[in-house]
Amino acid sequence: MTKPLLFLFCVLLTLPSVGQEGRKVSVYLGLQGSTTLYDRTLSNNRGGIGVGLQGWWQTASIIRPVLELTGETFAGTKELYLLPDGTPIEAKSTAVNILAGGALQPGRKFYLTVAAGPSFINGAAHLAVKPAMGYYFSNNGLLGGKVSFTNVFYKDEVSKESFGYLSFALSIKLFDTAPKTTTTN
């Protein structure tokens, strides 16, 4: 039941941007490092590194739709933890996030985003929420930096404890898509 609800949530978030034509989309590639703030097996997942793609729909407003795809590998001691009945508690090795949301960009360089969607950890889908704040180092937005916090509502058969991590990312603009224009002679 969780997977269909997560999928429906992502589709509903992106609907306002699907039917619009002529919008410019900016796509960024980011490299990030993360540190785990809380987890049921914290020593197993102390930190991670990853990559991400982020797409912005440029609008006339200061509020813009954002779609983000990130992949992260977590490192730690990877000790075997067992429940009293002998059931193993798995360490988190990878997380793939597909998040959609909105950005508030009051100026050329500073922005705030909030996105939500599924986070696939060890093959299982969980709901994730990711607020972030970023800064472009140049006026054209070519290079940027971002600090984000990801909370994964980690619900499985072993526990109901969330998983949260803080990430620091550097990004570079890959390309902008320009709106299609027609000329008449």
Terminal residue distance = 56 Å
Give the total of beta strands: 10
Helical content stands at under 10%
Unreliable stretches covering 5 or more consecutive residues: none
Q: If you average the pLDDT, what whole number results?
A: 85
Cα shape: elongated
CATH topology, what is it called? Porin
Q: The biggest beta sheet, please?
A: 8 strands, antiparallel, barrel
Classified by CATH, the class is Mainly Beta
Number of domains: 1
- Label the structural class: mainly beta
Task: Report the total helices.
Answer: 1
Order of helices and strands: HEEEEEEEEEE
Beta-strand percent range = over 45%
- Give me the side-by-side strand order of the main sheet: 1-2-3-6-7-8-9-10
CATH architecture title: Beta Barrel
Instruction: Give the radius of gyration.
Output: 18 Å
Q: What labels would you give this structure?
A:
185 residues, eight-stranded antiparallel barrel, 9% helix, elongated, mainly beta, Porin
Brief characterization of the structure:
This protein is mainly β. Helices cover 9% and strands 57% of the residues. β1 (24-38) and β2 (47-58) form a beta hairpin.
Plain-language structure description:
- 30% of the residues are buried.
- The protein has one domain (31-176): Porin (Beta Barrel).
- The longest helix is centred in the first third of the chain and has 17 residues, at 2-18.
- The chain starts with a helix and ends in an 8-residue tail after the last strand.
- Strand 4 and strand 5 form a beta hairpin.
- With 185 residues, it is mainly beta.
- The chain has an 8-stranded antiparallel β-barrel.
- It has one helix at 2-18, and strands at residues 24-38, 47-58, 63-75, 81-82, 88-89, 94-104, 110-121, 124-136, 143-153, 163-177.
